[in-house]
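Whether sequence alone determines local backbone shape is best considered at the level of individual chains. When preparing material for the folding task, we compiled for one chain both its residues and its backbone structure tokens. No coordinates are needed to read the tokens, only the vocabulary itself. For completeness, the protein is quoted in full, as a sequence line and a line of structure tokens:
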Amino acid sequence: MALHPNFPDSPHAILDPSIRWFPADEALRASSFEKLLPPLVPELRKKVKAWRDNGYAEATDTSRSLLNYWFNIPHLLPQLDGTTAEFQYYFAQREALETIIYLYDVVRVKDKYDLMRFDSSGAVSTGMFDETWRRFVIKMATGSGKTKVMSLVLAWSFYHKLYEPESELARNFSHCPQHHCVRPHLQRLSGPAHLLCRPGDTGQWGRRP
């Protein structure tokens, strides 16, 4: 299973949907690429890329402000030697959060019927899912930063509910980590000391004291 010749070395680089990894030899990309990816994924990646390239158009002010703060503003962190280095999220983390916000803010997905519009495979149907409520699932590899994505989703939901009058999101959350090692990590990332606050009407985001 080879990588596309233009696949970047950096985990922070924004990936074009056409060069993404898939579980087959590179020679089969033209004929089998979308067939071997999970349903909904190929079309959603294209839509989210176009939305990102268009400056997150149609997102709420809160969502756009947070996305730009997290992903488009340099974050310099102090190092042990007294210098600073820029912190960046992995692209996998960025795309995961962007996809959730795109589906909620822009597409306004309410249930499984709304999600089916992104299925280009014909392999799934609404009858395969019992849920009648909105459910988004993110699948990420071990070590790719799933827990951090969870904390960003919680922060986004909190401030979306706080600042957007029509928001249906929550300001209270129940953490259900599968492993006891994840629980303190998630609490550290999403606890009060690590949530973002918006002081006054400056439009700036910063860490809560």
